[in-house]
């Protein structure tokens, strides 16, 4: 009679029920009418997890190692070969859930890596926009710094000019004061000279003119005439008057003739005229003193104006200098930002490139895993066909032997 024989595929440990089969021919003839015992087929050992055939599966697990705990990786390493070597309809529910979960993890990981790429590219785009804005700011900062630098230099030149004007005004004041002092000294000299001149004339001329000297004092009289002629020499009197006046003054008024009397009279007029000239010189000197004092006031006003201009120029210079420093600091800050943009751009580009590489590696691992699955399924089909063919031949041999 026919029996059902349980066979094991050499690639799976899951039993499959096939048609009845007989053991191969024995060397000894069995009794007629009795069927021989079915041959025992050895069960194939469970697939070895480190078999190179499953490298694609292990590579996929390696790609997912950052998302799955080590214990889960170890479990999948042990389970996947068994699940892959089993037809879908013959898989245990646990094996099916493992493969389903693995697919979900792959989809999740692929989505996460695609998201990282999108986020990285968005960051790169945002950085480029920010860099473009910073570049415009950099150009504006350079123009502002250059303009403020020029203004600072102009203000510095104004300060130098204003300082020169202040020094010049100070020199003008000093010169005006010196001229005023000289004028005052001249006026004082004329005043003193007039006072001394008038005092001496008043002392010497009346006694000589009136002849009040006693005859015995003729030496004092001669000395007085000499002193008077020393003063007379300063007058504008003609030389003849200067020569004749001492002779006329030697005589007393009664002894003088008409010419001598006229000479004394003209001598007195000449002395008065000189005194008047001294008075005019004093007035002229005082006028010059007043003018020089006005010059001093004008110079002081100019100096004050120059000082105020200098102060304003210095304030402007300080303001422009501070503005220039601020512009220079802003320019340095933007330059530093541009350098940071360069480094940040390289870093983000590297992150995007790494994310793309990681995604491509995952996709390749998934593709290889799918190819491995298809290959194993094909092998299972071929293996089962071969097994069924071998079993069919055994069954036919058994049936033939039973028929005999």
Structure write-up:
There is one protein chain. This protein is mainly alpha-helical and about 400 residues long. It has helices at about 55-65, 70-85, 95-210, 220-230, 240-250, 260-404, and strands at about 5-10, 15-20. Strands 1-2 form a two-stranded antiparallel sheet. Strand 1 (about 5-10) and strand 2 (about 15-20) form a beta hairpin. It is rod-shaped, with a radius of gyration of 68 Å. The model is unreliable at about 1-35 and about 40-50 (pLDDT under 50).
Defining key terms:
78% helix; mainly alpha; 404 residues; 2 strands
How do you describe this structure in short?
By secondary structure, the protein is an all-alpha fold.
Produce the secondary structure layout:
Layout: E1 5-8, E2 15-18, H1 55-63, H2 70-84, H3 93-210, H4 218-232, H5 239-250, H6 258-403
Antiparallel strand pairs: 1-2
Helix pairs in contact: 1-2, 1-6, 2-3, 3-4, 3-6, 4-5, 5-6
Our count of helices gives 6
From the alpha-carbon coordinates, what is the Rg to the nearest angstrom? 68 Å
Q: Which strand order spans the largest sheet, edge to edge or round the barrel?
A: 1-2
Average pLDDT metric = 79
Which shape, going by the Cα principal axes?
A: rod-shaped
Structural class: mainly alpha
Terminal CA distance reads: 13 Å
Poorly predicted runs: 1-36, 39-49
């Amino acid at each position: 009679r026919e029996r059902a024989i349980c066979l094991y595929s050499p690639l799976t440990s899951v039993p499959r029920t096939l048609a009845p089969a007989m053991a191969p021919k024995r060397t000894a003839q069995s009794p007629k009418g009795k069927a021989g015992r079915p041959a025992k087929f050895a069960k194939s050992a469970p697939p070895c997890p480190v078999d190179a055939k499953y490298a694609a599966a292990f590579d996929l697990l390696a790609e997912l190692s950052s998302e799955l705990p080590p214990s889960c990786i170890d479990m999948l390493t042990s389970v996947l070969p068994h699940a892959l070597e089993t037809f879908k309809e013959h898989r245990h529910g646990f094996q099916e859930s493992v493969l389903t979960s693995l697919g979900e993890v792959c989809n999740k990981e692929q989505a996460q890596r695609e998201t990282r790429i999108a986020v990285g590219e968005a960051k790169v785009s945002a950085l480029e926009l920010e860099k473009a804005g910073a570049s415009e700011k950099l150009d504006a900062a350079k123009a502002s710094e250059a303009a403020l630098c020029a203004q600072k230099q102009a203000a510095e030149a104004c300060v130098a000019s204003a300082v020169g004007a202040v020094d010049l005004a100070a020199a003008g004041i000093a010169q005006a004061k010196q001229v005023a002092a000289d004028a005052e000294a001249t006026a004082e000299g004329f005043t003193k000279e007039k006072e001394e001149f008038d005092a001496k004339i008043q002392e010497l001329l009346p006694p000589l003119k009136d002849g009040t000297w006693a005859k015995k004092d003729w030496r004092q009289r001669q000395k007085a005439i000499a002193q008077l002629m020393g003063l007379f020499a300063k007058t504008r009197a003609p030389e003849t008057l200067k020569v004749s006046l001492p002779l006329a003054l030697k005589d007393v008024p009664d002894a003088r003739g008409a010419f001598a009397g006229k000479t004394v009279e003209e001598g007195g007029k000449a002395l008065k005229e000189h005194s008047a000239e001294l008075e005019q010189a004093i007035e002229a000197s005082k006028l010059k003193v007043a003018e020089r004092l006005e010059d001093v006031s004008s110079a002081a006003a100019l100096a004050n104006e120059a000082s105020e201009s200098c102060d304003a120029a210095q304030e402007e210079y300080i303001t422009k200098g501070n503005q220039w420093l601020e512009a220079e600091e802003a320019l340095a800050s933007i330059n530093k930002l541009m350098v940071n943009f360069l480094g940040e751009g390289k870093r983000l580009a590297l992150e995007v490139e790494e994310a793309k590489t990681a995604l491509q590696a995952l996709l390749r691992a998934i593709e290889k895993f799918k190819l491995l699955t298809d290959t194993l399924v094909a092998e299972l089909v071929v293996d089962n066909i071969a097994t069924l063919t071998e079993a069919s031949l055994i069954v036919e041999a058994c049936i033939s032997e039973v028929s005999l």
